[in-house]
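Exercise 7.
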Amino acid sequence: MKKKNLSSKYLHPLGLALAASLALGSTATLSGCGGGDDDEIPFTLEAAGNYKAGDNGEVYVYNWGEYIDERVIDVFEKDTGIKVYYNYFEENEDMYPIVATGAAKYDVVCPSDYMIQKMIGEDLLLPLDFDNIPNIVNIDPEYLKSAENFDPGNLYSVPYCWGTVGILYNKTMVDEPIDSWGVLFDEKYSQEILMINSVRDAFMITLTYLGYSQNTTNEAELDEALALLQKQYPLVQGYFVDQVRDKMIGGEAAIGVIYSGEAIYTQRENEDLVYVVPKEGSNVWIDGWVVPKTAQNKENAEAWINFCCRADVALANFNYITYSTPNKAARALITDDDIRNSEIAFPDSEILNRCETFRYLGEEAEAMYLNKWNQRGNK
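Solution. The predicted structure, written as tokens, is:
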């Protein structure tokens, strides 16, 4: 299956220009990059309404690329009469200045946990009116509790997708089962390692391996983590995000760092691939819907969030993007026992208890992380 961009019929001209300019300068994609081919993924969702798009206004949606089954947009428009203008970003850091400066006035956006925390702290978001989001009852309380780490009281966000970061390896190309981040620093796998091209995720790996918090701001700990990245640098075939999926499917490397939703997809394509959350721990992330202060269609934004919380809609999106859903009602509708009980899609508490969620660390710490990341090739 080949990744594709959203149909241009949903894209607003301003968003097209912004997406193009951002794509030119982008170097990495964080969480939210799954997706498949519409023709190969069953879709049984049907609209109950018969509105024309625009009968009841519009909503401007800003989301990750390949993070929705676009067929649900048609259903939303027919059910609500709200016209959807949909644009996508590749990184939280691409999305943030667009929303923060009001360069484009989006009504509903889907950032990651630490970015939601940052946007709340900078007073960029509106509190949600949950009277307009009754389907919030479908979200598992476990994930609402986790979301309080970055959105205390669940006032500003509703979880959309979540997942872990782990190691994907080809069992025909390694000598033994893998259970530790340590394999990423093993010289015998030189040029067989695909490292993740993300500052926080890369430091998460080395910090966690060393026994430190992935949210540390202690410079001595970061220097130890940097030393590991520098030791690893000559062993790495390349730094990627999206490409890890296809390279691992094609047998172009033995080991890769990958997001859990991507791992599910790769295993559909290559049965020799195994995903593991290392024993030292990892990152568990949550992406959620929020409404920026610059939104001009807040009630329509809340209608969109409520729609995405419907069990059948959440199921359709899960089937398409393969990233874990926090929607307990949708999970109950999954008919494939292997998927419903998958430790990749829905890891048990033993795995989650050794994971940590990113927090926003402040501008000074962000700059320190970036400065050290840029030194990984120096030794």
